[in-house]
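Re: the 310-residue chain
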Amino acid sequence: MKVLNNNISFNKNEYIVATIGYFDGIHFGHKKILTSIVKNAKSNKGLSMVITFWPHPRIVLGKNKKIELLSTMKEKENILKSIGIDLLYVIKFTKEFAKITAKDFTINFLSKKLKIDKLVIGYNHNFGNNREGNYNYLKNNKNLYQFKIQEISKQQINKEIEISSSLIRENLIEGNIKKASKMLGYNYFLKGKVIKGDGIGSKINYPTANINIENSKKLIPGDGVYAIIIEIKKIKYLGMLNVGYRPTVNGKDKRFEVHIFDFNSNIYNKKIKIEFIEKIRNEKKFKNLAELKNQLKKDKIQTIKIINKK
């Protein structure tokens, strides 16, 4: 997959089927649109193109400066590549760009600059200043452009369950991991580097790896204990994760602590990937470390049962 941006001149040589969107997380609904343009491009012996934006428009426009993302740009690139997208065109989203009308975007960008042959968009996608552009706008203004248009209906996208990036964020924050993963079509994950902790876990035979999350803008699910899968150097391990303030030891700062089952290697400063499988329980203050240890034993048994059922 070739990655381009709007500061680079674009030379069109082949038939292009494109779609537009931020595609945060590239969930199950997004994939319906993306696989459609890949199939369409191949049938026309052309190329599939995703036109996206960075950073998130809501952040730039001040509507939600603290919005937490489901995927980084690099993660998005990797998923798009795995789907078979040929071209990723990344537009730097600015307040100036946000002022461009749907008419100007359609004529000057889609038609004149990219010279696309077909545009495929979802039923709820809007573009241009004040979100005035959508499928109906394009259908009613065919005199503005030369490319074909196709809408992917709500039924095609959300046939089984209602899906949206906002709904996935809500479920992750609430700890509804299984529901979020079903909408994503994969296990939600985070990446980070292992850093030094307090060593309290080792004292009760449940050593933990403290994780410094790689991208501060990526969403961290709500506080609690989770069944997880950990990937280190492409090898996967079972484990559990605590997100929170460690009330039993009067913790003051929020920590992200992983216990990897049957693992005793030194992984300080190593990068790891954490896949969320299911929330086990909320974080709780125990009377002492012995009581905490007893609960961790139960959490481990439950984690193994959960992952073995997958």
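The chain has a mean pLDDT of 92.
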